[in-house]
DNA sequence: CAACGTTGGCTAAGTGGCTTAGCTTTAAGG
DNA sequence: CCTTAAAGCTAAGCCACTTAGCCAACGTTG
């Protein structure tokens, strides 16, 4: 029986593709194994198990998302940077419906790559907020606010939580516009 | 063998309690059955299955959340109403960590109780926004924005997504304060 | 109060996930 | 060519959900 020649990277990458097709919750080791042309237990030679796979997928997706946010915002500032970052965020979530939920896993301190990806993602947001003059505690609060708004929106959208016919793109742009207003007049605490 | 005397309501209620203790994802028919003093398949006399239980739990939790938001906002308006509603929202999510995720299930059109609960929840938010003079498309956009912000925040908080030491209560209050500012100067579209 | 039908409980059995143990064979390197 | 690490395999077990079919308790009705 000829070897397929897998390694951790190919396994995780295929898991990402599969997750985008069938959904994060429906990503199963059985489906992944059959997709890769191996028996299910063979995956354990490359990944410690289902949970470890989810964690590695989180690293991949978080790194991708961080890169896309950073790329979108680079060379811009203020509302321009905010809009670019926000669009990149939602684009990623829509283009990668299986990977996006994986990004919500809190970084594993034992995995430097994961920690680094998480820092890059938060750092991209932080950088945009610096363009509004927000630093210290204000920047922390504002980062949390922006993450909450973006994450909440794309999550509700993906879940089909927006029932009414009103155009969703428009609602998102309004949300981002309102965050722009908020950041320009952020309730300062002098952090 | 004496009967335990279950019905759908007792089953769903106990499921809610159990979910709050062990988490929504860890809510299992096996655990629920043993908690109720019954063999697992007996639950099927009261609930169609695991998915149907999740749906009934969604109805319960959505109705509770809607009631708490409505109660909090009644008799208030503007920023006052907003803060009261937002606090009620997060309080519920923190007090009921197992029920809260259930509320995210999109209402089943075939279950009038579910639809009604969902409408009451959205209606509570809508009512608060009317206090800002927001109606029509503006109100739809603003509702989506507020839901996104609140849901995103409590979800990230519950997931442990806020790593930094900065006080989380404070960040939430800042978020709500910034939404207040946004709603007062909402980017109008003339809906 | 007895018979009956409904219903709420049960056991047994099947499916589909994940995981571990232990074997075989490939392929790479001396 | 021989050795060995690694990559695949099968077998088997666990746990979740689900269905089928049986039996006993309870309420109703004659």
Describe it for me?
The structure is a homodimer of 191-residue chains. With 191 residues, chain A is an all-alpha fold. Chain A has one domain (8-184): Tetracycline Repressor, domain 2, CATH 1.10.357.10. Helices cover 67% and strands 0% of the residues of chain A. Chain A is built from eight helices and no strands. Chain A has helices at 8-22, 29-36, 50-73, 78-95, 99-102, 112-130, 136-158, 168-184. In chain A, helix 3 (50-73) packs antiparallel against helix 4 (78-95) and helix 6 packs across helix 7. The longest helix of chain A is centred in the first third of the chain and has 24 residues, at 50-73. The termini of chain A are far apart. The interface between A and B is large, with 38 and 38 residues. Chain A binds a DNA duplex (30 and 30 nucleotides) through residues 1-6, 28-30, 38-42, 44-46, 49-50.
């Amino acid at each position: 029986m000829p070897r397929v020649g897998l390694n951790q990277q190919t396994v995780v990458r295929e898991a990402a593709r599969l997750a985008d097709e069938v959904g994060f919750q429906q990503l199963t080791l059985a489906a992944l194994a059959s997709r890769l042309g191996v028996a299910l237990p063979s995956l354990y030679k490359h990944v410690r198990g289902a949970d470890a796979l989810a964690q590695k997928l989180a690293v991949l997706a978080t790194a991708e998302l961080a890169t896309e946010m950073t790329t979108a915002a680079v060379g811009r500032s203020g509302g321009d940077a905010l809009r670019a970052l926000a669009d990149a965020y939602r684009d990623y979530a829509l283009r990668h419906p299986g990977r996006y939920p994986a990004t919500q896993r809190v970084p594993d301190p034992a995995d430097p790559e994961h920690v680094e990806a998480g820092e890059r993602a938060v750092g991209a947001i932080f950088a945009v907020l610096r363009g509004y003059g927000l630093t210290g505690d204000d920047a922390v609060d504002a980062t949390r606010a922006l993450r909450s708004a973006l994450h909440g929106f794309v999550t509700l959208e993906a879940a089909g939580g927006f029932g009414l016919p009103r155009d969703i793109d428009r609602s998102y742009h309004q949300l981002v516009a309102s965050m722009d207003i908020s950041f320009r007049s952020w309730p300062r605490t002098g952090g």
